[in-house]
Structure prediction request, 199 residues.
Amino acid sequence: MAPPPKQQTMKERILETADKLFYLQGIRAVGVDTIAAEIGISKRTLYNHFPSKDALIAAYLERRFVSQRPSDKPPAEQILATFDSLERRFAAKDFRGCPFVNAVAELGPADRAVKKIAIAFKESRRIWFREQLNELGVADADALATQLVLLVDGAIAQDLVRDDPEMARAAKEAAKVLLRNAGVDMEGDAVMQHKRTPQ
Prediction:
């Protein structure tokens, strides 16, 4: 018999509710009163767990800061799967773009704490691309990693404007061109880099 699901702590409940409301309605549009009312608690209870709205915003973004899962798939396949994952996300009814970009756009560059978290998240994605490209032996992995994250963010922006998951597929095709130009063999089903000869 499966063990009963673990009971959420009050802090987890507050954070989960804030996550949903901040992402779907906007950080500025949602006050702590709304979050407390949604859970059925007082503002004082909320402030016992998060001393300010700024602290709650930071916790919300940190909760969204999820690392890429390790995979045994070939690096080029992992890179292209990023765009497949985007396409699925775009098709979801609750997709509202990148929470980190949204937060910076809403709160402005003066909010250094939010900007710092957003930059760290974006850089973690760029480094992940660079690691895959290094595995493939791409000469200028750093520059290509930057180009790939630009494709990701561009696809997100286009989907938000057009409401069209096909934007992820278009970005994937552009990624294939970039990989092919970097020397990655993209022919057939095999997506692999010819091994470099050891120096």
Observations:
- Strands lie at 184-185, 192-193.
